[in-house]
Each structure stands twice: as C-alpha cells, then as structure tokens.
Amino acid sequence: MELQSSSFLIISLILIVPLLNLISRFCTSRRNSRPKLPPGPWKLPLIGSLHHLSGSSLPHYALRNLARKYGPMMHLQLGEISAVVISSPRVAKELLTTHDLAFSSRARLQSLAIITYNYQDIVLAPYDLTQKVFSYTNDVICRAAFGKSCGGKDEFLPLVIEFGNSSGGFDVADLFPSVKFLPTVTGLRTKLMKLHHKIDQVLNIIIDEHMEKLKRGQHGEEDLVDVLLRFKQKGSAEFLVTMDNIKGITLDMFFAGTHTTAATVEFAMAQMIKHPHVMEKAQAELRHVFRGKDRILESDLEKVSYLKMVIKETLRLNPPVPLLLPRDCKDWQKVYGYDIPPKTEIILNALAINRDPEYWDNAEAFEPERFAESGIEFIGTNFEFIPFGGGRRMCPGISFGLATVELLLAQLLYHFNWELPDGLQHQDLDMTEILGLAAKRKNDLYLVATSHKS
C-alpha cells in the first residue's frame, strides 16, 4: 500500500511538473503576445471610454485634458472602435513620416459617406459678420466650381450650413457599427439623407446646365465641373470619372472650403476684436502698403507679412478641424514604443498639438508675433503646427483656402474700422465654440463697421 502511494506520488509529480511548466509557458506566451497599447483612461462595459467625453467640454478639449494625464499617445475604446489619440508634435511627426503609408486610409464615417456619395470625392448697425463671411466664401467656391455665382444660392446655402452643423462630434452609429439599427434609431442618418437628397437635386440642375453648354459647343473659361465633365467624356481608363465622382469632389470643395474658410475668418476677426492692438497693427500695415488703392488684388498680398502672422496664429489657436479626419491603421505598427493593431482608428488632435507648451511659449495666448522669425509654415517639417494635417492626407485645398482667407481679411481690415456694438468691451467677447464639420464660434459675431477713407 505504501509502495502504491509512493508510486502514485512520484507519477503525479512527474506529470504535474511538466503540466505546470506548460501552463506557465502558455500564460507567458499570452502575456507576451498581448499588444502593448498606449495608456488610457479606465473603461466601462459596452461604452468603453465614452463616459470620459460626456462632460460639457467639446471633444477636442476633453481629449486634450485626458492627454495631459495619460500622455501624448493615448488609447481609448469608443464603443466598438479602438482609437489612438495623438496629442504631441513628436508623436505626430513619427506617425506622419515614418509610418505615413500605413495610416493613409481614411476612417469610414456615416456623415462623410453620405455627403461624398460613398467616398467618391477627393465654408453702423450691428453687422452679422458671420453670415456675410459664410455667404462670401460660398460665392467664392461657387465661382470656382460652377463658373458663376450660384443661381440657387438662397436654397443651397442653408442646406450646406445645416448639413455641416449636423455632422460634428462622435456619432453613436459610427462607434457601434455592428448595431445596424442604430442609424435609424438616432435619426441622424435619415436627416442627413434628406438634406443630401435636396443638395443632390441642386447639383443635378447645375451639372445638366454645364452638359448642355458643352453640347452646344460653348467654350469659355473652364470651371471645376467643366474640367471633370471633360475627363468623364474622354473615358480614360487611368482616370475614370463618374457622375458621383463629380458630385463628391464638388461637395468636397463646398463643405471643406466654405465651413473651414468662414470659421477661420470669423475667428481671426474675433481674436483681433479681443486683442485691439493686433487689429491696429494689421490695419496699419495694410493701409500703409496699399495707400490710395480702391481694391486689393490677391497678387498684392505678397507685400504684407503681419496679416499672414495673424492668420497663422488664428489657425494655431482655433484650427477649423481640431480633430483631423480620422485614419485607419492598415496593419500592425509600432509607434512611439507602443503597438497599434490593424483597424485601429487614429485621431490627431490638432488643437492639443498646436498648443503644446513644450513647443510654444505662452501657448494659450494670441500672439501673432511668435511667427515673425520662426520660419514655421503650413507645409513642411513643422509638426508642432498642423492645422491642415500632414503626410499623404494633408488638406489638398490649402493654397485655395488660404488665399480666400487672406484676401477677405485684407479687404475687411483695409476698408473698415470694427468695434463691438452697444458699448461692449473687447474682454466681454464670448469665444465659446461649437463643433460641426468645422469648429466655429457658438454665437454669430456682430460688429459695427465704419468706413475708412484711404
């Protein structure tokens, strides 16, 4: 009996030791194979990290506050979406240079899919400057796209504004893509589809007019629609253009150009009203350089430098797209020492990057002079300043948008003096933001304009 017990013990030890070793190796293997994700806030079942974004702050400010605690590269679970938020120039540079190709795919968002035709693409009485600026930028885009001021502007412009205002922030249907009924429950998809249908009808009329003009052989100065229709008629296999491509690219111009351009001009004027010495300096430069002129041409703007600094500082503090369009990771990547699994959504927080105190002195202050000797430009290796993104997905309309902003601000500052109505003081100006397709002021900017005699 004792022999049997001893034998059983020996056999058990012989079996248990390798079994324990196998279990240990399995656990170690599991631990080692688990990706080293960036740090991030604690998560709840189902919603993940969404509760950290549920306060009163807009998403780009909430994410910046979280990054101050968890670091420049932070992991969030946004419903079903695994996301990594970049809030530092150093990490942005690594991601947009070394790993740019792996992160060049655009994330699929419900509102973008609708407005781009399923991604077939490539804004002395108190004077409502907000609406006037938006209308002006819409006219500029109309002329570039259609060759004339929009005939249906009165109908088209409110649709552009409403769609843009409905498309910002995190949509719950994008965060839980497997729950197919969510777009219907939230009502957003239905609303956006109705707006898109109305916009589509206007575009059909405009494109039909262009096609009739081409059939009649009327050739003049080509606009964007003319060029795209010409490519469509050629039917090149290398550059196949469909009608949805034409509509998607045209709407790209409207929604990206109108909203972001108008928001930038409005923020620039608001910042200068809040900092009167900046407005005085910008006006003094313009009125000295263009003394006696009735009109300022785009070609003349090379002669002014301070206005360019004002625009740069506005875009640094108030980037029109503070959370740059998200990207998808194609395959396993290691960035900044952390693993990024495939299909992770990458969010670049331009607001946090542009205000990083490690790179900017007095980062929260509006100081255009900081750009006087810095050599920092919109395009280049200056990843501490990315209002238009970087790498392969950098905004393709930078030159057009900046020219529009610069020319409009120059005209406003050269021809008029501006002040707040009803005896309001500059320090009383509310700079609260809301988020749609672009971040913009919550309230329209009402100013009193008086003509300046040059």
From TrEMBL:
| PANTHER family on file | CYTOCHROME P450 FAMILY 71 PROTEIN, PREMNASPIRODIENE OXYGENASE-LIKE
Question: Which SUPFAM superfamilies does its entry note?
Answer: Cytochrome P450
**Which family is this sequence assigned to?**
Belongs to the cytochrome P450 family.
Identify which cofactors the protein needs according to its UniProt entry: heme
Residues annotated as binding heme are C395
Q: What cellular component terms from Gene Ontology apply here?
A: membrane
Kindly give the membrane topology term recorded for this protein. Single-pass membrane protein
Give the residues annotated as coiled coil.
Answer: none
Q: Which domain of life is it from?
A: Eukaryota
Q: Which InterPro entries match?
A: Cyt_P450, Cyt_P450_CS, Cyt_P450_E_grp-I, Cyt_P450_sf
Residues annotated as transmembrane: 6-27
Please state what the protein is called: Premnaspirodiene oxygenase
Alphabetic keyword roster: Heme, Iron, Membrane, Metal-binding, Monooxygenase, Oxidoreductase, Transmembrane, Transmembrane helix
Q: List locations, semicolon-separated.
A: Membrane
Identify a single GO molecular function assigned to this protein: oxidoreductase activity, acting on paired donors, with incorporation or reduction of molecular oxygen
